[in-house]
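Discussion board: Methods & Data

I've been asked by a reviewer to show the raw model output for two of the constructs in my manuscript, not just the figures. I'm not sure how much to include, so I'm pasting the format here to get opinions. Each protein appears as its amino acid sequence followed by a line of discrete structure tokens. Is this the kind of thing reviewers expect to see in a supplement, or should I convert it first? Here is construct A:
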Amino acid sequence: MQFDESRDEHMTLLTRLWRACFPAEPFQGVVSERWKEIGFQYKNPLTDLRSCGVMGLEHLLFYAETYSQNFVTKARVQQLKPFEFQYPLCVAGLHISQLLAVDVFKLNEIDRKSTLLN
């Protein structure tokens, strides 16, 4: 399911990710430079969420809430590496989610078949 910022439940997930990563700061909204600190490519995380939508965000959220300190540390360590060796944590997580969904679980085929049946 594509992330839709007009849906409260989607924005709640994004807010929870923010709180897991920046517990001392109020949620700054969809656009903030701080998103890049945890591994999104741009100051608007919705750009990266286009690849696998809500599912990818839920996977990131599970990691961030369950292993909060580890998540934040891994994200910040990536930023210290030379640019050519960086791979932002959130982007990497979203790519892994998409690979699992498409290549392993064949969810794109399920979507395609259900569309054809309707």
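Construct B, same format:
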Amino acid sequence: MDNGCSRHTIGDKSKLTDLVLRKSGYVTCGDHNKGRIMGEGNVGNQHKTQIKNVLYVDGLKHNLLSISQQLCDKGFKIEFNKNGCLICEAKTGEVVHIGKRVGNVSMLNIEHASFCELSCLVSKIDDSWLRHCRIGRINMHYHNHLVRKDLIFGIPKLKFEKNKLCEACKNGKQVKNSFQSKNIVSTTKPLELLHMDLFGPSRTMSLASNNYGLVIFYDDYSRYTWTLFLRTTNYAFDFFFCKLAKVIQNEKGLNIFSIISNHGGEFQNEFLENLCEENEIHLNFFA
């Protein structure tokens, strides 16, 4: 960044876009040496930061950004200090970019600079969104209601558009992410993992006067399902461990390795934990 340079100049033509080669005079440096102007082009691209009307000077060893051409003419104020320089809006004094001091030179990284030939250095946030963040991120319809009824002292008379989507609100209201299905079986043999749940009391009693059902949804390997009907929940795992579990294990010639269920009281209790420990079965719960 050079406050004594009257035009943007560069010595590497590979950094220029829209380069027009033409010999159009000379640039005089501080030691009165002259560099031949070989053309003119732009630095950067129009989608990010672009500096226009940059002179390509033959043999120039440094890229010089003219403070007067690029900044002062655009309505900005530049303040230099021992750490570099501050680019500020002339009207508000707000700092929009910082040039870092390297040695005795203030340098600006064009890749991260937020100005171009036809745009301002700072992008102003929509004040309605700022108010949306400050007032608990309530919906835009209720914002308009607050303004219209003067329900909050000091709130500006802003119109809140309803067709905008707040990214933070969207993420905050998202209760879960979808799980992608797997095309492989996690287990390698029957009874390695059993999924279980208990339902009831049902409105209709069974013929044996049972109101509850213990469902072993499926064996994770074979996808087979069993169901036990119970009169009360107290006997759920007495029935399972004393009857069904022994029959299943004898039939398959295998032992039950792991059980997974929800955090219901019929599953997450000391009695069940002791039974699983005695039978060397892992007890797991869904999140």
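Answer (T.O., handling editor elsewhere):
This is acceptable in a supplement if you add a one-line summary per construct. For B, something like: The chain has six helices and 14 strands.
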